[in-house]
Every structure is written in structure tokens, then in C-alpha cells.
Design brief:
The protein is mainly alpha-helical. It has five helices and two strands.
Length: 98
Amino acid sequence: MRFEPLLREIESLNERIKEYDARMEKIARESYPQVALLKQVKGVGTQIALTYVLTLDDPHSGSPRVASVRMFSRIKPGRRDSGESHRRCTSAKKETAI
């Protein structure tokens, strides 16, 4: 069969991915305990949580992009007054308008 070499290569790649996943889990567990907290958020896995911790959570980073992400993550939903009831603003445009 002429697809056998390709299938063997795919199998080899899958095994290497599993090994890297296991290494990432070990690094996160042993060196970055805050990853476990971030993984509690639905849809956040080890890779995303570890990426966040290693790049965006660095308080000494002077990168403007990192600073803007840090600032954006602290924005709280705004409120609009409408008589006696309060409704939350859902428009990001209203939140960031200057």
C-alpha cells in the first residue's frame, strides 16, 4: 500500500505531540501552579494558560502589547442609567471610547 509511509509518519507525529503535551503538563504542574487556576475557565487548557502566564502575566514586561492586554483584562463592564433600573453596557465601543 502506498499510503503506509504517510500513515507511519502521522502515527509518529501523534506520539511526539503526546510526549510534548505530557512535558507541558509536568512543567505547568511543577513550576507554574497558577496555570491550574486559569484552567478552571471553560475552554482554557494547559497550553493557553501556560502561554498567558509566561507572556502576559510578566509584571516586568515593558512591551506595549502586553501592557494593553493587561489593561484590557482589567476593564469592567460599564453601566448606563435608565431611570431607576441599571443595565450593563455590552458595547466594547462604549467602554473604550475616548
